[in-house]
Amino acid sequence: MTRMTHQQIIHWLRETDSAALELLFAQADEVRRQHVGDEVHLRGLIEISNHCVRECHYCGLRAGLQIPRYRMSHDEILAAAHQAVLLGFGSTVLQGGEDFGIKAEWMAEVIRAIKAETPLALTLSLGERLPEELQLWREAGADRYLLRFETSDPRLYAAIHPPRKGTARSSPSDRIEQLKLMRQMGYEIGSGVMAGIPGQSYEMLARDIEVFADLDLDMVGIGPFLAHPDTPLGRPDTPNAGAEQVPSSEMMVLKTVALTRMMCPEANLPATTALATINTVDGREHGLESGGNVFMPILTPSPYRQMYQIYPGKACIDEDATQCNSCLRGRIDRLGRMVGEGPGGRHTRVSAWSGRAASDAPGWKPVAEVVKASPLTVLQ
Ligand code: 5AD
Predict the structure, then answer these.
(1) What does DSSP assign to residue 301?
(2) Which distant-in-sequence residues (6+ apart) come within 8 Å of 272 by Cβ?
(3) At 1, is the pLDDT very low, low, confident or very high (cuts 50, 70, 90)?
């Protein structure tokens, strides 16, 4: 299969003809079937902390917002991980804000305990952390790391991601570098973007999709931008890219998922909670029918679940883990697809290394060497 060109991607992102789009979705669905099959993998999402030191202009957890904050305890996280096993999930994702109250060694202990007590593949999504911390967690047994780069356009990135306060850093952070570094450490790496961030043009979104392919991502999460009224990008007068502005709509997300499937045939692509929020009836189904092959049921226990409101109106927060599980399984069933068994990692290359020691992974280097060679280090 030849790679789509930049112009072709832009053309499809702008396409509005429904018959043409049906063809795109059908083709993406076929590529999905051939490369990752009919299985839909379930990743139990545990939102372990809503503390955050960052002030991303779109996020409802940004530092400074007066919201109730929480950090789950070791035992609470372990209980949720055991529930993932009971519900038949092959993997779990521990997600949180960029919370330096989560100490590296404490987190490593949580990781070791989950790996010792369960067969789960373990994904972390804890923001931009130091190379030494990422390496420690990899060695403790973490298999995968999710870090959306949000936009590959350096100017838009810098405009909506202020550098972390209290550090010497004045330049914007570099999430793409962190992803490359984690790949070298032997993590499976996941990233993604929101479709429709104010200031995002078709050109930029097309480039984002090309970057997914260039990074050879193992996982790509794509959802709509959902305006949060208490954030800078949630204000009604937020400037945007005018005629070139990507709309934040379900259709835009589905096109982006389909094109990502065409460009990254083997990647795991979730039908995201944000997609389910913009279309509560069948947004998730549409995600699975346009290239997606993953669901991420929320396992976070109450009352924390209601406190992790990255954007308003988030789907599923009034349910509990058991309800989320049966709702999502029902949706998979009705589409004639089946729930994936086991960890459900990347089919080729990287997945063979999941769960093994970091030092067995291809391209593995000792931490000192990786850290020395990384442009990230200078920025920390
Ligand atoms: N709307 C949609 N998605 C959002 N995220 C953060 N804020 C919003 C928002 N307002 C997404 C980001 C982040 C992920 C955890 O949630 O892409 O990486």
Answers:
(1) P
(2) 221, 222, 223, 253, 287, 296
(3) low
Distance in Å, CA 194 to ligand 1 centroid: 7
Q: Is 149 in the pocket of ligand 1 (CB under 6 A)?
A: no
Task: Decide: residue 46, CB within 10 A, 0-12 exposed, 13-18 middle, 19+ buried.
Answer: buried
Q: Can you give the residue ranges of every domain in the chain?
A: 15-379
Q: Residue 350 pLDDT > 80, yes or no?
A: no
Q: State the chain's mean pLDDT as an integer.
A: 91
Does ligand 1 lie within 6 Å of residue 58's CB atom?
Answer: yes
Q: What percent of the chain has pLDDT over 70?
A: 90
Flag whether pLDDT at 366 surpasses 60: no
Ligand 1 atom 14 nearest Cα: 148
- The model's pLDDT over 54-90, given as tens digits with 9 standing for 90+, comes to 999 999 999 999 999 999 999 999 999 999 999 999 9
Alpha-carbon distance of 311 to 317, in angstroms, equals: 12
Placement of tokens 């499976």 in the chain:
188
Alpha-carbon distances of 100 from 49, 53, 128, 130, 255, rounded to whole Å? 10, 8, 10, 10, 36
Q: Which fold has domain 15-379?
A: TIM Barrel (3.20.20)
Q: What is the pLDDT of residues 8-57, one digit of tens each?
A: 999 999 999 999 999 999 999 999 999 999 999 999 999 999 999 999 99
What pLDDT is stored for residue 298 in this prediction? 96
What whole-number distance in Å separates Cα of residue 273 and Cα of residue 363? 34
Among 133, 356, 129, which residue's Cα sits nearest to residue 364? Answer: 356
Could you give the angle at which helices 250-263 and 6-14 cross, rounded to 10 degrees?
150
111 lines ligand 1 (CB under 6 A): no
223 in ligand 1 pocket by Cβ < 6 Å?
Answer: yes
Residue 344: burial class (beta carbons within 10 Å; 0-12, 13-18, 19+)? buried
Assess contact for 71 and 102: CB atoms under 8 A: yes
Query: pTM value?
Result: 0.91
d(CA 266, CA 237): 40
